Amino acid sequence: MTVTVRDLHLEVPDDVELFAHTRHLALPYVLWVPEAIVHRQTHSHPDAHYRSLVAEEDGEMIGTAQIGLAYDSPEPGQGYLNIYVRPDRTHRGAGDLLVRAAEEHLAAQGATRLFSWVLDEPGNRAFAERHGYRASRSAHFLRLDLANGTLPPLKELPPGVELRTAADFVDDPRPMFELDAETASDEPSDVGTEFTDYEAWLEETWKHPLLDLDLTSVAVVDGRPAAFSAAYTDRNTRYATSMTGTARAFRGRGLAKLAKNASLHRARAAGYKEAFTGNDTDNEPMLAINFWFGYQICATEVRYVRELG
Ligand SMILES: CC(C)(COP(=O)(O)OP(=O)(O)OC[C@H]1O[C@@H](n2cnc3c(N)ncnc32)[C@H](O)[C@@H]1OP(=O)(O)O)[C@@H](O)C(=O)NCCC(=O)NCCS
């Protein structure tokens, strides 16, 4: 039994399909859709030096990695490697080979600190620690049963607040960029985000193939987008929130709840059966909002860090 590592063959649809399937088996709380995997690879900023790797055992894909540099962080030299091996194919050396290939690439691109999300299970944590990583922040995956659960009722809008969708901003998405940038920089994380490149945001975020502009809700105050909840879907039964945020000046007025509730109601009406999201375990306001909707924690990941050099 020989395990080898190579780059994903983006031009081969079956390879991308298998990549999505292999990742789904390891991490079913995330929407793994081939189109999105190709988009991420082809639209990542060149400074991210982004790569998707696969581990194969005798021709069978058993593990995957997505690796790159956090080019939009104010602190340079931060790299990430997110590695998942099929749960029924562990202990064959795939994880070890993927870590080595990832670390070699990231170090060659100038990374000095590496971050890796690790599902919170003793075997995974021991694996990360053996490779020189130490535990840092953690985050929950949450799931809401849209098909059988109940949603909070839609309320009358407060005075001065309008509810729109992202589709209303197609002619000029810049106000959405500004709101996304302001709120993303406040999201608790150990890798700071500061995106200032509008063209890169248009390519990576606004044109993301899973972003559903009609299900993405925007609360507008005095003509200005004040809060939003961005919806990804697999165009079938699964819906995921990619970001919820409220501009600093408008927090604590119920606008995040309002925007997300509108999006969830429309998603349910459109036939989506389950909703997913992910939150840092210290993000108390966002967790409180999600529990209010009825989301339940379905898994936890720990961010592991390794200093290189
Ligand atoms: C999280 C965030 C979206 C909340 O926006 P908001 O418009 O202030 O939220 P709302 O007013 O709709 O709801 C706030 C709810 O959070 C809860 N809350 C607020 N502060 C809290 C705290 N410190 N601890 C616990 N719960 C808190 C309350 O339940 C409150 O609801 P209530 O007022 O009805 O009781 C906003 O703080 C934000 O943009 N943060 C930065 C981006 C981010 O972290 N987004 C989430 C990414 S996963």
From TrEMBL:
The keyword Acyltransferase applies. PROSITE patterns: GNAT. It holds the Pfam family Acetyltransf_1. Gene3D superfamilies: 3.40.630.30. SUPFAM superfamilies: Acyl-CoA N-acyltransferases (Nat). Residues 3-158, 161-309 form the N-acetyltransferase domain. GO terms for molecular function: acyltransferase activity, transferring groups other than amino-acyl groups. Keywords: Acyltransferase, Transferase. InterPro entries: Acyl_CoA_acyltransferase (IPR016181), Bact_Acetyltransf (IPR050832), GNAT_dom (IPR000182). This is N-acetyltransferase family protein. It comes from Streptomyces sp. R28.
